[in-house]
Amino acid sequence: MLTKRIIPCLDVKDGQTVKGINFLNIQSVGDAVELGSLYAKMGADELVFLDITATNEKRKTLSELVTRIAKHINIPFTVGGGISSVEDVSVLLACGADKISVNTAAVKNPLLIKELAGQFGSQCVVLAVDTKFENNDWFVYLNGGRVPTEIRTKDWVKQAVALGAGEILLTSMNHDGTKDGFALDITRDISASVNVPVIASGGAGKMEHFTDVFTQGKADAALAASIFHYKEIEIADLKAFLKNGGVAVRV
Amino acid sequence: MKLVIIKYNAGNTQSVIYALERLGYTAEVSDDPAVIRAADKVIFPGVGEAGSAMRYLCERGLDKVIVALTQPVLGICLGLQLMCAYTEEGPVACLGIFPQQVKLFPPVEKVPQIGWNTIFDLKSPLFKNVNDSSYVYYVHSFYAELGENTIATTNYITNYSAALCKNNFYAMQFHPEKSGDVGEQMLKNFIAL
Q: Which of A74, A166, A220 has its CB closest to that of B19?
């Protein structure tokens, strides 16, 4: 039986892992490859590396990092953060990335999704969406959650899947960093509205939150960062907990 | 040990190269028929679209080179599908090493299947020291039906061929290079054939 995936997310800056609380106050927590290898050994099903480097050296440092990850880690990983062109993606996949995620650049140019899916296949194109609930609906935010739009999240996800996005990484800005649980309603709505897997992100604080997002939220995978980085929850314990609760996981 | 990875327009070769390096082996990537024929073991990986991949192989005569190989050959993911008789993706006639038809999963579950699923009914030295019900990593929308060449089965929507074998030809629908320690064991087993 296909299992639900647990995905630690490593925000990286200049090759180091960082995690912001509500996208701010960045704190370094260690080497990205070392931490990724450790998570793989502990039972992580996949890894996501989001690069938040904003310097001119970004492309070079990111492709070097991706090469190091691919050499050392024997589970799949996704790379995202500021990816805006077919050339960017071509380089990262050639370095050994399994998937790439696009966010702001895809909103600004939706045909980027079609180009990427056409050239590299939908299986490696993850659409990342930062979404916020306000004025009674969920809206898309750009630039790491700093720039609001009037685009409804449900509309955007449907359009992106029609263009070839193979997976959705949905982060609720209302929940991210709160540790009060995932956004179950929008995750469930998005999961029901498209036929590609949905990765829920933002709000993990307790093991029960993962059960909730898989059962009530209908997520195919759940992503978290700080609870793993600060060892508040061990991946092996989380999986045992989920299995006991009747959620299919790889143990 | 001379390992050659077939170079074509749908390779995810880098991940396979790194996985072999972790096991202590160096692989050469080549589309030169002479180099491929001279290899001890040949790996035929693939991520991409079947129609364009078959066109590329046929244009370069690699289709005829692959089917005539006599050393152990391992197809991975799209490689497995291209080694079957026909795929609905395209649709296109493939290499015909295995008689299977390759079909699109019906949309009763999410397609593609992405993630870790179990393999069972293991019947090959390829799975030495691999337990029944081990988890392997899949990313695919098309699947090969069950048949007499099936050496491992997985269930997603239906039971299908997780792996196939006929004479010197082996193939896996999942990605051993991304399936953690279990996948590395299978690659070791292939190299030891």
A: A74
Domains and their CATH numbers in chain B? 3-192 (3.40.50.880)
Structure tokens belonging to residue B143: 């699947």
SS3 B31: coil
d(CA B54, CA B161): 21
Is cis: bond before B99, omega within 30 of 0? Answer: no
Residues B135, A167: C-beta atoms closer than 8 Å? no
Sign of the CA dihedral with B112 first, then A7, A84, and A146 last = positive
- Residues of chain A neighbouring B134 (CB-CB closer than 8 A): none
pTM, two decimals, is 0.94
Q: What does the pLDDT look like over B8-53, one tens digit per residue?
A: 877 678 999 999 999 999 999 999 999 999 999 999 998 878 888 9
Domains of chain A (ranges; CATH) run 5-243 (3.20.20.70)
How far is it, in rounded angstroms, from Cα A242 to Cα A223? Answer: 15
Looking only at the bridges linking them, the beta strands covering B169-172 and B150-156 are unpaired
Q: Looking at the predicted complex, does its ipTM rise above 0.90?
A: yes
